[in-house]
Amino acid sequence: MDLNSGLDYFIAISGFLIILVSFGWNIYDVFLRKSSHHTHSDDSDSVIR
User: Fold this and answer.
1) How far apart (Å, rounded) are the C-alpha atoms in residues 24 and 32?
2) 3-state SS class at 5
3) Residue 48's closest CA among 24, 26, 35, 32?
4) Measured CA distances, 46 to 12, 31, 38, 40 (Å)
5) What 8-state DSSP symbol labels residue 4?
6) Residue 3 in contact with residue 12, Cβ under 8 Å?
7) pLDDT digit string (tens) for 6-38?
8) CB 28 within 8 A of CB 35
9) What would the pLDDT profile of 30-46 be if each residue is shown by its tens digit?
């Protein structure tokens, strides 16, 4: 892939960051649900949804 253009470079970095953020958010969400499982998670889920 040719990254000479600034726009191509920006698109490549943006896509890479989006993938990293979504992957990190999935891990954070699973960890958050596991850690809050013993607390009143049903009430918080109903409030969020």
Assistant:
1) 12
2) coil
3) 32
4) 38, 19, 16, 10
5) -
6) yes
7) 899 999 999 999 999 999 999 999 888 877 665
8) no
9) 888 877 665 555 555 55
| Pair of tokens at residue 10 | 């920006």
In three-state secondary structure terms, 22 is: helix
- Tell me how far apart the alpha carbons of residues 11 and 35 are, in angstroms, rounded to a whole number: 36
- The neighbour count for residue 37, using CB atoms within 10 Å, is 8
Rounded-to-integer distance, Cα 17 and Cα 6, Å: 16
- What span, in angstroms and rounded, lies between the C-alpha atoms of 14 and 41? 34
Say which residues have a Cβ less than 8 Å from residue 12's Cβ, sequence separation at least 6: 1, 3
Q: What is the pTM of this model?
A: 0.50
